[in-house]
Automatic annotation (TrEMBL):
<keyword id="KW-0378">Hydrolase</keyword>
<feature type="domain" description="BD-FAE-like">
    <location>
        <begin position="45"/>
        <end position="245"/>
    </location>
</feature>
<dbReference type="InterPro" id="IPR050300">
    <property type="entry name" value="GDXG_lipolytic_enzyme"/>
</dbReference>
<dbReference type="Pfam" id="PF20434">
    <property type="entry name" value="BD-FAE"/>
</dbReference>
<comment type="similarity">
    <text>Belongs to the 'GDXG' lipolytic enzyme family.</text>
</comment>
<keyword id="KW-0732">Signal</keyword>
<protein>
    <submittedName>
        <fullName>Acetyl esterase/lipase</fullName>
    </submittedName>
</protein>
<dbReference type="InterPro" id="IPR029058">
    <property type="entry name" value="AB_hydrolase_fold"/>
</dbReference>
<feature type="signal peptide">
    <location>
        <begin position="1"/>
        <end position="22"/>
    </location>
</feature>
<dbReference type="GO" id="GO:0004806">
    <property type="term" value="F:triacylglycerol lipase activity"/>
</dbReference>
<dbReference type="InterPro" id="IPR049492">
    <property type="entry name" value="BD-FAE-like_dom"/>
</dbReference>
Length: 306
């Protein structure tokens, strides 16, 4: 999805206060590459170790790539150089896609994508001592479906299982903050159509072939929809979030282009975030003048304590 990736890079370059061309040096190599956190070939992550000024543990940015849970890769995560320069380590994950889940008989298939992200986060926390990570200062970042995933992590109840015989499962899945680029914020087909009438997205997450089938089966799928949708999960104890959309929001009106990444997803969840008292900021159409964090990286620096 080159156009989407380009918009992310433009945002990162502009928000760092420098030309885009100056923001693309050769990407740093991972300190540890393709570290397995599960048995599937796609259950791997790259870890980039930052140096703490005091020689102690560093905060960490946990990055989940986008691609509709169908494609994409962990290489070159957003904010990588800025994080490392500022003493923030980075973990960037791969995960099973929808077709992988369907091949394994996982229902609904999106469950595999989300469960993998939670397991990877627990795995990273289990490495805190070895990798010199402060497990209490981990922020999430991602774009599109990756943005949905980090919002899901940020808003879900803690999935730690202290009674498990697996020590990795004892680790928390909570995040200290979330920065998401053009994320979808619900998987409720009725809600999506109310917000974005020309949207045709989401059936694949449940192994369905069309939006009409998704709408027809909505009631039977509601337990899963509510378990997965950031909108349904958002509550007052959730971390600060910053959402970035490169389009205007006009809730209930069909956007002229790219409904999958419409600013209406941000406008749709905005009242819920406000009602729950969740600290949040939403940027639409590159309008930075009103923002507390016009430099997006400054949000991560502040919330991760650097």
């Amino acid at each position: 999805m080159p156009s989407l990736r380009f918009s992310f890079l433009c945002a990162l370059g502009l928000m760092a206060g420098a030309p885009l061309s100056a923001q693309q040096p050769a990407a740093p190599a991972p300190t540890q590459a393709n570290v397995p956190y599960g048995k599937h070939a796609k259950q791997v992550l790259d870890f980039y170790q930052a140096k703490a000024a005091d020689g102690g543990a560093t905060p960490l940015l946990f990055f989940v790539h986008g691609g509709g849970w169908m494609t994409g890769d962990k290489v070159n995560p957003d904010f990588l150089k800025q994080c490392l320069d500022d003493g923030i380590s980075v973990a960037s994950i791969n995960y099973r896609f929808i077709p992988d889940a369907q091949a394994e008989g996982i229902t609904p298939p999106v469950k595999a994508c989300l469960d993998d992200s939670a397991r990877a986060l627990q795995f990273v926390r289990s490495k805190a001592a070895e990798w010199h990570i402060d497990k209490n200062r981990i922020g999430g970042c991602g774009g599109s479906a990756g943005g949905f995933t980090v919002l899901w992590l940020g808003f879900s109840p803690d999935m730690a299982d202290p009674k498990s015989t697996d020590p990795i499962a004892h680790e928390s899945t909570r995040l200290k903050c979330v920065l998401a680029f053009v994320p979808q914020t619900t998987l409720d087909p009725k809600q999506m159509k109310d917000w974005i009438p020309n949207l045709d997205y989401g059936p694949h997450a449940f192994g369905l072939g069309s939006m009409q089938e998704f709408l027809d089966k909505r009631e039977s799928l509601m337990p899963w929809i509510e378990r997965f949708s950031p909108y349904a999960l958002a509550s007052k104890d959730d971390p600060p979030v910053l959402l970035f959309y490169d389009s205007v929001a006009d809730l209930g009106k069909p956007p002229a282009k790219d409904p999958v990444h419409s600013g209406n997803f941000g406008a749709g969840i905005a009242d819920k975030l406000k009602a729950e008292g969740i600290e949040h900021e939403i940027n639409y159409n590159n309008d930075y003048g009103h923002m507390k964090y016009p430099n997006l990286f400054s949000f991560l620096k502040e919330k991760l304590g650097r």
